[in-house]
Amino acid sequence: MTEDHVFTLTEAERERTGAVADALAEVEPRLVDDRSWLDACRGMSEELPERLRRRLRAFRHDPRADGMLLVRNLPSAPALAPTPTVQESVERAATPAAGTIALVSSQLGEVIAYRDEKSGALVQNVVPVAGREEQQSNAGSVPLELHVENAFHPYRPDMVALLCLRPDHDGGAGLRVASIRRAVALLPHDVRKVLGEERFRTEVPPSFGGPGGQAPPHPVLYGDFDDPDVRVDFHATHPEDEQAAEAMTVLRAALDTVTRAVYLRPGDLAIVDNRVTLHGRTHFTPRYDGEDRWLHRTFIHLDHRRSRALRADNGQVLS
Ligand SMILES: O=C(O)CCC(=O)C(=O)O
Ligand SMILES: [Fe+2]
Questions:
Q1: DSSP 224
Q2: Which SUPFAM superfamilies did the record assign (predicted)?
Q3: Which of 297, 298, 300 should be mutated for ligand 1, with most atoms under 8 A from CB?
Q4: Which CATH architecture has domain 6-308?
Q5: pLDDT digits over 21-72, tens only?
Q6: Strands 159-166 and 277-281: what pairing?
Q7: Which of 70, 207, 241, 291 is most buried as measured by Cβ atoms within 10 A of its Cβ?
């Protein structure tokens, strides 16, 4: 596979990005979830290096075969706070790192969150949590199944951004990404047909009103037959019948064939197009010593207006 999913900032571009993020960190009230701070962030995102802005614009137009863009050599903090250890951890303070992911995300589209997930914070922490090792969530450390983010949700993110602040101790935690644009050619015609029918249901997590919550049946592939969007979570999506189950098995094998593992380093930002690309994570061994793996995460919508009815006061949080 080619490496055209990687974009590396030059040293000058890294410095410029750092200067913008540092200036944004000074904007009162220095809180990510504050409307005026985010307004400033949106405006200042225009000051990011031009080559980066062009690449983000091109990615938004067409996420290419991989459906992911890995931006490398973003500024990273020389002296970083200890990795948070608690569940549902979020970054409310407008640190330079929070500013960096918010700036890039704002160039792509609208940074959004869900009231029922991580208390609606726009910049969230992805960190391992003691006692949750086995959980299929970003607090776990066993292999995390390939998934579309919030696959159950009609207004799931269009893009997910993950910025590495600190890698895991052994450098073995790999972000796995698998694009349906690469996998679809490996699927027999009849399998694609079954995957395109409303024969699958995705569990609604308890925080969003599940498991009692009604999950309507949906197709796994939709849109163009040869270049479809994908909606599946291999932990939470269940086939309704035997043929649908077989189709999911074939899909999974095809996705495994095209999966890439990305070992994020500090200053690496992975942007995943959540319409065409699934993500997951390999296992790793946390130590809970303040030096564990730490990512910031944002969700991005490309069309803010579409979710207006779910957003109070035309804010960023969907409920
Ligand atoms: O830990 C990772 O690399 C990805 C976790 C994940 O799926 C997420 O935070 O949405
Ligand atoms: Fe995820």
A1: S
A2: Clavaminate synthase-like (SSF51197)
A3: 297
A4: 4-Layer Sandwich (3.60)
A5: 999 999 999 999 999 999 999 999 999 999 999 999 999 999 999 999 999 9
A6: unpaired
A7: 70
